[in-house]
């Protein structure tokens, strides 16, 4: 009983100690794992993922791969400029951005710490255009910059390992830790349960993602028809993987409509061709 109580106190103390303010979201967040560890783990997992999946190269002139890379580069450029203007350039320290399209019919996309981005070919028939693609990519980058995966990973670490560090968890229970990572960052597979982002995370990613895509010169109003199309996919059947982590419903579209005028007015500057 005493040991259990002490463990509870230790976890509570760690939780309080590990809470830090995120300047881009404006709220305090729990993060048990140092950013450098997250970025190192991200680089390893990203390399493994690319090695085990078919990456669509840009060198062959594939128009979809070229579009994804162009869209990603523009968003990265806009975010870097925005962070520097806000005096937040240090927040992107260690980021080594990568953008890849993989040949997979699953409608999905994600971004890991350090700017490791993947878009699946199965998402493109739903985005239908580059503006909607930018909405999705901005949203996924916002999850990373908002450190939402880190929050989910930290909570999962406490539940699974208590006070164990990420490196020790990988050494002692590599498969459990890897599965937890994939769940936290939306890289799930058919054998893994996917953890949905919280409503708080989704609203933050919607707001920041729209701002990022608009700053890159993409029309944020493409978000509404995109999420309507995503919502139609799940009618009468199991939702696709992307919707398992990013529920599409009337509330999301309602919230997007609330912020749309502000984003268009204060962030959207159409890119000159």
General description of the model:
The structure is a single chain. The protein is α+β, with helices and mostly antiparallel strands. It has one domain (33-266). It is built from 12 helices and 6 strands. A 4-stranded mixed β-sheet has the order 3-4-6-5, with helices on both faces. A two-stranded antiparallel sheet has the order 1-2. Strand 5 and strand 6 form a beta hairpin. The relative contact order is 0.13.
Average pLDDT taken over every residue: 79
Structural category is alpha+beta
Cross-sheet strand order for the largest sheet: 3-4-6-5
| E-strand count | 6
- Give the biggest beta sheet: 4 strands, mixed
User: How many domain modules?
Assistant: 1
Order of helices and strands: HEEHEHEEEHHHHHHHHH
What count of helical segments does DSSP give? 12
Relative helix content: 55-70%
Radius of gyration: 19 Å
């Amino acid at each position: 009983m005493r040991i259990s109580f002490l463990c509870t106190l230790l976890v509570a103390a760690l939780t309080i100690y590990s809470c830090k303010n995120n300047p881009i979201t404006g709220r305090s967040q729990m993060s048990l794992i140092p950013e450098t560890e997250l970025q190192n783990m991200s680089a390893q997992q990203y390399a493994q993922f690319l090695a085990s999946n078919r990456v669509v190269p840009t060198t062959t002139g594939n128009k979809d791969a070229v579009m994804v890379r162009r869209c990603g580069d523009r968003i990265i450029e806009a975010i870097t400029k925005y962070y520097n203007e806000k005096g937040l350039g240090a927040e992107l320290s260690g980021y080594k951005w990568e953008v890849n399209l993989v040949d997979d019919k699953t409608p999905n996309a994600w971004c890991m710490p350090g700017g490791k981005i993947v878009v699946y070919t199965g998402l493109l028939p739903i985005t239908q255009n580059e503006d909607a693609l930018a909405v999705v990519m901005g949203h996924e980058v916002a999850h990373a910059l908002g450190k939402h995966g880190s929050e989910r990973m930290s909570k999962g670490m406490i539940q699974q390992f208590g006070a164990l560090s990420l490196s020790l968890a990988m050494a002692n229970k590599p498969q459990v830790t890897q599965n937890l990572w994939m769940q936290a960052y939306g890289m799930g597979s058919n054998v893994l349960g996917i953890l949905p982002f919280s409503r708080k995370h989704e609203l933050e990613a919607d707001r920041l993602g729209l701002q990022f895509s608009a700053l890159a010169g993409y029309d944020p109003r493409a978000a509404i028809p995109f999420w309507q199309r995503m919502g139609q996919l799940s009618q009468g059947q199991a939702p696709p993987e992307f919707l398992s982590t990013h529920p599409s419903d009337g509330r999301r579209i309602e919230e997007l409509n609330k912020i749309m005028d502000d984003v268009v007015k204060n962030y959207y500057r159409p890119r000159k061709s």
